[in-house]
Amino acid sequence: MTLMSIPLPLRRRLAIACVLALCAILLTGAGLITAGRVFPETPAGRRSAEAGIAAAIDSLCPLYAIDARLIRSWKATAAGEPTGRIEEKIPVDPGFRSLEFNHALVGRIAQFGAGVVAMERSKENSVTMHVVRGGITIRSLWFVPDAGR
Asked: Residues 47, 51, 39, 139: is their CA dihedral positive or negative?
């Protein structure tokens, strides 16, 4: 059987399959070459991302009836040394929908390479959302129901 004896539609399919297989091999090779490489981040890039994340959080507050004036913020420390993480205690209405806030927050900070890890404390009726970027928690949001609201 020669190449010319194969019907044209089958030859086209074989050619496309070969090109796709070659692309897959090249992409796998490129992935293996760059795997594990960490590209250094510039301080300006980090500051820009953190400012964007802060702006995203601030923009969500009015949408969820959070009074920004009541938010208490501080820099976290460990063994007396600053950790670089900002912690915030945020009073919210008892009917605050933390899952919706979490979803909206994830959508807004994804462009900065950040994600959210949340945990609920049922006993205290509070939720803490940790904003993580590059494997490091850079911001912790502690949502506490405020009965006086």
From this structure: positive
Number of Cβ within 10 Å of residue 1's Cβ equals 5
- 66 near 90, Cβ under 8 Å? yes
Contact 125, 143 (CB under 8 A): no
Q: CA 130 to CA 114: how far, in whole Å?
A: 10
Collect all residues with Cβ–Cβ distance below 8 Å to 126 and sequence separation of at least 6.
Answer: 120, 142, 143, 144, 145
Cα 118 to Cα 149: distance, rounded to the nearest angstrom? 24
In contact, 128 and 144? CB cutoff 8 Å? no
Q: Terminal CA-to-CA distance of the chain, rounded, Å?
A: 83
pLDDT, one tens digit per residue, over 15-51 is: 999 999 999 999 988 888 777 666 677 888 889 999 9
- Spatial strand order in the sheet of 114-121: 72-78, 81-92, 136-145, 126-133, 114-121
For the entire predicted model, the pTM comes to 0.69
Question: How far is residue 67's CA from residue 61's CA, in Å, rounded to a whole number?
Answer: 7
